Every structure is written in structure tokens, then in C-alpha cells.
Amino acid sequence: MFPEHRPRRLRGTAALRRLVSETTLRPRQLILPLFVAEGADQPRPIASMPGVVQHTRDSLRKAAVDAVRAGVGGLMLFGVPEERDATGSGAVAEDGVLNVALRDLRAELGDDTVLMADTCLDEFTDHGHCGVLDSSGAVDNDATLEVYAEMAVAQAEAGAHLLGPSGMMDGQVGVIRRALDEAGYTGTGILAYSAKYASAFYGPFREAVDSQLKGDRKSYQQDPGNAREALREIELDLAEGADAIMVKPALAYLDVLRAAAELSPVPVAAYNISGEYAMVEAAAANGWLDRERTILEVLTSIRRAGADMILTYWATEAAAWLD
Ligand code: PBG
């Protein structure tokens, strides 16, 4: 008899396929990134991310409640300030947009969801870099760490459960851990953006936060060609006290994600970023892809590659489909 082996047998009915399915995708594994704009009286659409907006304080609260009702596992907040300066002082200020929004959501949702904050200066600096600059205009690693420490304490005070340092400064996890502990926030965790690449796929995000960046982030984010380096970054973050780690972007880096998942003793996140969102939305809007099937395939593939959790702008909608 030929063929001797028939893998198709287990694909014959929906029930068989369900039974042998290897990868789960559940709402609780999804994290919704949200943008909140200081002084906005209307939600502002982001042209390159159809369906995503810069929220007002009120619309943010509503979007957060909707996400939690849909079963989404967590929220990651980004602030868009009205004023920016060289040191990103709005990131540290108690009345800075991100800290105000964290307070709002913690008051609204308590511990019903996991509230996370982007711990990075790029949204708050007038030059758009993730840190402060030295006199030559280069990003000053150690001076930036001092600001991150203050920012982290402000975010913990404002109610974040997990902080997401995304600036790729050397030592950022260790400095933040120490600052949190010294301020008494021993229970506030760190989701470290450990392997973050200098990616063209961040393009739409720059619009989402009105980024002032000219140039690029190649002196601190990783070269897309390097995988070994990602493992070193992860090991350093673990040694410095990361409670969970992240690989970012997701789709073009599934090999890095797989390697990270194999070595990590802590949960692994992947960020399905703005450019990945924009590509699918644009193709679907043209009728070139089946939107829902594509989105679920993207998210399932990121899970299959090893992510325990996925940051995705589709979180609320996908959670509703999965329910
Ligand atoms: C930095 C940060 C960025 C993103 C998340 N955190 C932008 C960057 O590094 O340039 C990108 C997320 C996305 O593209 O969806 N604060």
C-alpha cells in the first residue's frame, strides 16, 4: 500500500483538527498597547494605523474597560505629551500624561487587569531619542539611567503593575530594579524589552506618538542581522532582575523568539508592532487578504514560536473572536 503514512487522517474533520491542535491562543495571552494624548478633547486617528487612536483621558478609560471585558490579559500605556524638552521631564512629572493616565486606569480597574507602562523617554524628548544626549549629541547611557530610575518610581507610584523599559540602554533593568526596591516598590515588576531591534517596522508608531526623531536608533537598538547578541541581552536582563522578557518586533524575528523561549526561565513576550499591524490592515483594506484569518494566523504563529504573551493592537478584537 502506498502511501504508507497518511498525516491527512488527523485533518479530516474539524473535531480531529481541534483535538490535535498544538498551539493555544487565548484572550488572557494578549496585551493591548494604548496611546493617550495630553490635552486631547477628541480621540485622534492615527493614519498609518487604521482603527488605532491617540486617546483622550475619557476614551482611554473606555477602551481599557472594553479590553478587560473582552478578557484581554493586560494593557501597555504610551503617553503623548503636549510639550517636550531635552531631558523628557514630562516622563517623570507626577502630572505628566502617562502618569496621570496610569492613575486613572488603576482607579478604574484596580487589580482586574495587569497595568503596564512604557518606561522610555522617546515620547517625552524634543529630539525623539530614548535617552538624554551628551554635549556631542550622542545618547548618554549612564545619564539616561538616572532619568529611567526616577521615571520608574513615578510609574510605580502611579499604579503600574509592570514596567516596560524599552530604551535599550545598558544596565536599565538593574538600575530600575534598585530604584523600585529603594522606594519600597518591591512588588512592581519589570517586563524587559530585552531584544529590541532597530526596525523599519516601527514607522507607524512614530506617527502614533508624534515622534520628533530625526535619524535612527542604531546606536542603542540591535542590528537586525544579529541573533547571538539577543541572547546576551536576555541573559544580562535576567541577571539584572527582569521578571519577564520581550522580543520585538515579532514577525521578522520569530527565530529569535524561539531561541529566547528555549533559554528563558521567565515568561516571554513578543510585540506584534505597528508596522506589522499596518501591513495587514492595508492589505485587508484592499481586499488582498482575509483580515480575520490573517490576524489569527499571525497571533497563532507568534505563540507557536514561543511567546507566552503578545502585545498586539488587535487584542480586544481578537479576544472577542476567540471567546
Ligand atoms: C520606544 C518604543 C517604540 C515602540 C514601543 N516602544 C518605538 C521605537 O523604539 O522606536 C514601537 C512599538 C510599535 O512599533 O508598535 N518607546
UniProtKB/TrEMBL annotation:
- Molecular function as annotated in GO: porphobilinogen synthase activity
EC numbers listed for it are: 4.2.1.24
Q: Which reaction does it catalyse?
A: 2 5-aminolevulinate = porphobilinogen + 2 H2O + H(+)
Q: Which protein family is named in the record?
A: Belongs to the ALAD family.
Query: Which PANTHER family does the record match to this protein?
Result: DELTA-AMINOLEVULINIC ACID DEHYDRATASE
Q: Which organism is it from?
A: Amycolatopsis cynarae
Its annotated function is as follows: Catalyzes an early step in the biosynthesis of tetrapyrroles. Binds two molecules of 5-aminolevulinate per subunit, each at a distinct site, and catalyzes their condensation to form porphobilinogen.
Give the record's keywords alphabetically. Answer: Heme biosynthesis, Lyase, Porphyrin biosynthesis
**PROSITE patterns referenced in this protein's UniProt entry, alphabetically:** D_ALA_DEHYDRATASE
State the pathway, as annotated in the record. Answer: Porphyrin-containing compound metabolism; protoporphyrin-IX biosynthesis; coproporphyrinogen-III from 5-aminolevulinate: step 1/4
Gene3D superfamilies recorded for this chain?
Aldolase class I
- The protein's name is Delta-aminolevulinic acid dehydratase
Carries keyword Transcription? no
Q: Where are the transmembrane segments?
A: none
Q: How does it assemble?
A: Homooctamer.
The EC category is: lyase
